[in-house]
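G., the chain you wanted modeled:
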Amino acid sequence: MKHSLHAWALSCALLAVATVATAQDSLLPLPETPPLAYYQQPYQPRAPQYSPRQPPYRLASANNFGTYDQAYDLSSARALQVSNASPQPQNVLHDGAAWDQALAGNGASCGVGCDASGTGGGACCGPVWTVQARALVMTRVSSDPFHFDFESTNPSVCLLRSDDPGLDWWQGGVDLTLQRRVSCNGAFQLNYWTLAPSDTQVSLIVPGLVLNTTINLNPVTGVTPLTLGGSPLSAYFDGAGEHRLRRNNEIHNAEFNYTHQFGTSGPGRPFAASLLAGFRYFRFDEGLTFGSVQNGFQFGANGGLNEAYYDIDTLNNLYGFQGGGHVERFMFGRFRVYANAKVGLFYNDAEQRSRVTRGDGAEAFDLASDEDVLSFIAQLEAGVNMQITQWLRGDIGYRAMGVSGVALSDEQIPAFIHDSAAILDVNTDGSLVLHGGYAGFTVLW
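Predicted structure as C-alpha cells:
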C-alpha cells in the first residue's frame, strides 16, 4: 500500500512537469509574415469566357486595384471598356459613316451613332428644315380637238382646230417645298408650284376664198334666232375673211402633307422609302376665243363693228385628300435614283361662262353656270439626285400628271349655239394631262 502511494505521487509529479513544459512552448511568438497587400505581384484574374456576340473586355487600368477584394468590387467593375473600340468617326464628307450621314442629309449637329432609320441613342438625326426650289418646264397634251372652220369650196377639209400646232405651249414655272421634321421619321411638308400663264393665238386667211364655221348657228325650232347688233350670227362667222383662235391657261397647285420616312439610302443600304398623306388644292383656269371678221375688213377696223367673238371660259377648283409614296435607290458615289407617286379624290367646283360679243362690246348672249363633280388627280415623278455637300443636294427629273373630271373650254360648245340649256349644262367629262421636266436644289439644315 505504501509503495502504491509512492508510485501514484511520482506519476502526478511527472505529469505536472510535462504540463508546465508544454504550456511554456505554446506561448512562443509566431514568425512574422507580410500581409497580402504587401505583395508586389498584381492579381491576374482569369479571362472570362464571353459569347461570340460579345467583344472582349479589359479592365480600365492594369494596376488600379489595391487589394484582392477590390479587384472584384462591383463599383470597380463598372470601369470596363471595349478593348477593340475605335475612335468615333469625324463628320467629314468622305469619312465612312459620316459620308453615310452626308448622303442622308445629316449634319454635324446630329452627333454620332445614327443608324439606318435616322436615329441613334434615342436622339433624332437628320436635318430639321428642308427647302427645295425647282424650275419647271411643262406642256399640256391636247384633248379631243374641235374643228372650228372649213374652206367654203371644200367643206370636207377642216382648216382650224383647237389642237392647232400654233396653240401648243411649253410653259416655265416654279416648284417650292418647305419641310419641317417633327419626329425622327415624320415631317410636315408645304408645297406650291405654278406655271406661268400662257396666251397663244393662231390666225387663218385663205387668199381669194372665204371661211365658214362648223359651229351650228341655225336656230333651234321654236327658239328666237340670236342676233348681234341686229344681224344674225352667221353674218359674222360665215363668209369671213379671217378666223382667229386664242387659248390661255393658268395653273396653280398647293399641298400640305405629312410624310413618314423608312430610313435613308446609302452605302450598305441601297433602298429606302417613305409614305405621304395630305390635302391638295389644284386650280385650272382656261379660256378659248374664236374670232371672226367679215370678208373685206380687218380686225380692229371700223371700231370693231365687223368682227365677232365666241368666248368660252372655264374654271376648275379642286379640293381633296391624297396619298402617295417615295422610293429611292442608292447608285454609287453621291447619286440616287428615285420615283414618287401621288393619287387623290377631289371635289371639283367647275364653272363655265360662254359669251358671243361684237368688237364694239354688243352682246348676243352671256351665260354662266357651275357644277359640282368628283375628280381624280394622279401624279408620277422619276429622277436622279446628287449630294453636292452635306447641306446641298441637286436633282433633275420628269413629271407627268393627269386630272380627270374637269371642264375644258372647247368641250363646252353645244351642238346648236341657240341651245341655252346645253350651254348651261357644264361638261365635266374632260381630262387634263401635263408633263415635263424639272431641275433644282435642296438645302438642308
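The first strand starts at residue 57 and ends at 58.

Shout if anything looks off.
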